[in-house]
């Protein structure tokens, strides 16, 4: 089912700080927020997913429960809610094209469930590693079928020798649509069900090939240097291809490619800032209806006059909100809306009648809005831009506690991971928790971040030590302080993964700016971590190209000793003796992205130098550190660290369960 994320109102425009100051003045006039309970920030949504059927008759709901997940069915006319599956390990669900079957996908298997009471519900496919089967999507041309990628590896060999695209219908019949010696990445089917376009690996690049009926495959597009292209659907009866990509351009846009290989640009960000984020297509005709962009001014654009008119009604009804939108077939079919936003901890669900303009709230018996943190007490994430010292325009977010003059507050830089990722609009548990405790939170999208085009991504030029990327972060902090935002004597830095690495760099090389750091799963030597990741990690920046080759494209050739030596020389590990500021580190014993031995080695080095260090290790956690006990321990220890060193709010004492968690996992305790 077509889906889209939309922010219905634009934040602060790029330029100087006048608009930012105006937004801050508005926040200062709000009522001050009460102190909210720490545990309330950790509440998870009760709905793991909801999907509108192609005909718009039902909404299927994947519901979280204390004992596991269940599947429910909502009638869009009567709004009657019925339990369909009492217990499931599914992580996602999808509708068949005819709306008669639900497909439930877990890490172990693919199941089918009839919504009409027909016989045949049960397991369709076991997804075990030996068979190398992967669900590729729902077949949009057949009544009830899924599409699968399959890899075949000969006995005694490690690499696959054959790659297949299969169709599997609910009766169990399999059809091989294509077999290839090269890895298959994506595809698009013509309306008659034939395979019309393929995306596949070709050496160290990716090619998109197409063919007319009865003709041979012909290369249409070849992507280089991390150019991206996601196949959406076919057009013109299968004679052209719709895709989202940045082929031969800086930013990702909606494109059409014909069988002669000519690329036509259908839609791109009118502000020339953001990559294309999402496209909604008509489930019947497969033609694009909406295009959205997310950055400084997230926006959505109707691609037909009728759809644009309906979007204007949504924008009027949901100002300053993000919407996930699903569209059913037919002019009178309902739309499913999922309302989200920076001050909405739990989303709200609606059905929208596009003809009458009526909105009906749904699923509130499952996702009870009264159990969410009060929106009036939460901080707004204000998007803004600033200029780096070399003139490059950078983007980020600022959150301030409502009703308080930010000049008197401690300021925290909260750095995103990746580094090839981005801080996005929407609700952030960490940001809201820190703002509620009285901190101004700055989230920079430094150069090298994604979402703003290829030039923005490649502008880092591999300078991820104590260099240009780190200066982007620090210059953003200093510019905010120069505007009277934050107390210059109470500045801290925190982050996860690469954000943790930036935290270590900040308190090591800029102790005049940062007084304290909280680093979660941090690499202490970025070059060593990248080299380790190429053989030991699950990190993949490009499905078609080995990580080591992708890193070369990003000016990080880890086979080059001079690159590793530069990163080593500038690393927090090599400069451990320079550390002057207190540090809290947290890590997971089962982390497959940042080696736990690297974290422990750095901690031992600091300990031998008698540095002010706290260390928490959850032996059961991975890179996300998402075990329930560790999630609360993270908030408590971070709050305590900033309280002691930035004179922030004093944390609520831990309960017995949290005290036991700390007793088991807090290896070095700097609180005493």
List keywords for this structure.
37 strands, Rossmann fold, alpha+beta, 12 helices, 672 residues, five-stranded antiparallel sheet
Task: Give the structure's gist in a few sentences.
This protein has 672 residues and is α+β, with helices and mostly antiparallel strands.
Q: Can you lay out the helices and strands and say which pair or pack?
A:
Blueprint (H helix, E strand, L loop, with lengths): L4 E3 L10 H11 L18 E6 L5 E8 L2 E8 L5 E8 L3 E4 L5 E5 L3 E6 L7 E5 L6 E6 L6 E8 L9 E8 L4 E7 L3 E6 L5 E8 L2 E6 L7 E6 L5 E7 L4 E6 L7 E6 L4 E5 L8 E6 L6 E6 L5 E4 L2 H13 L4 E6 L7 E7 L2 E9 L6 E4 L18 E7 L5 E7 L11 E5 L13 H8 L3 E6 L8 H5 L9 H15 L8 E6 L1 H12 L6 E5 L5 H11 L10 H7 L7 H9 L13 E6 L7 H13 L4 E6 L9 H19 L9 H10 E3 L4
Parallel strand pairs: 31-32, 31-33, 33-34, 34-35, 35-36
Antiparallel strand pairs: 1-25, 2-3, 3-4, 4-5, 6-7, 7-8, 8-9, 10-11, 11-12, 12-13, 14-15, 15-16, 16-17, 18-19, 19-20, 20-21, 22-23, 23-24, 25-26, 26-27, 27-28, 29-30, 30-32, 36-37
Helix pairs in contact: 11-12
